TrEMBL record:
The chain crosses the membrane at residues 111-133, 164-188, 200-218. It catalyses: glycerol(in) = glycerol(out); H2O(in) = H2O(out). The gene is aqp7. The keyword Membrane applies. GO terms for molecular function: glycerol channel activity; urea transmembrane transporter activity; water channel activity. This is Aquaporin-7. Keywords: Membrane, Transmembrane, Transmembrane helix, Transport. Pfam families: MIP. InterPro entries: Aquaporin-like, MIP, MIP/Aquaporin. The keyword Nucleotidyltransferase does not apply. GO terms for cellular component: basolateral plasma membrane. Belongs to the MIP/aquaporin (TC 1.A.8) family. SUPFAM superfamilies: Aquaporin-like (SSF81338).
Amino acid sequence: MKDLEQALELGVSQQKRFNATQPKVWLRNECVRVGLAETLCTYVMMVFGLGSVAQVVTGQGAFGEYLSINLGFGLGVAMGVHVGGKVSGAHMNAAVSFTMCMFGRLGWKMLPLYIFAQLLGSFLAAGTIYGVYYDAIHEYCGGNLTVTGELATAGIFATYPAPYLSLMGGFIDQVLGTALLLLCLMALSDQRNKPAAAGTEPIAVGLLVLLIGISMGRNSGYAINPTRDIAPRLFTAVAGWGMDVFRGYYC
């Protein structure tokens, strides 16, 4: 009997210590938690991705090349999934969020929240990279912020079509790239087929983005993500590049 009482007391004591160390959930509103998580994971992805572009462009080839950009975005996506995957699903892409709604994996009422969070995260990431690389950008272009030309820098933040690309060609390029992204994402999460092994989902998604980049990036930079492109483009429009960001081409 005495042993039983001691065991019960020990159990209660351990339970108290366990409860004392449990993290407190200070954000009980689901929309707030999801919105912040989606903003943060999108921000992380974009900081690494845009940062890799800025390093390649301003370094003029001395600090990386096109493959560096592919790796930067691929690994950035993987880190973004780690940051917000368990809270918001880490869509980081309006096309992904829309597809999740179509398949009933996300409520339509949550779609505006996801899109807003992705736009905010991308916009903040563009501002961050502009601040981090401010001196490098201005040293590279001599303070002349342009969309086209040999010293164009707008391409650091948003994607632009190559000069040879027609409107229809650009449409097909982006639709196909986005469709392949969504098809493979759905396959990676399909438990009835051949999903990514548990715990490997972030790196699998990152490798998928890397694959699209190294196979379909020539025409228009494989944006395959409306919110990834729109928000940084808006940032450059107000940061000094002007309205040319909405009609420029690569040179």
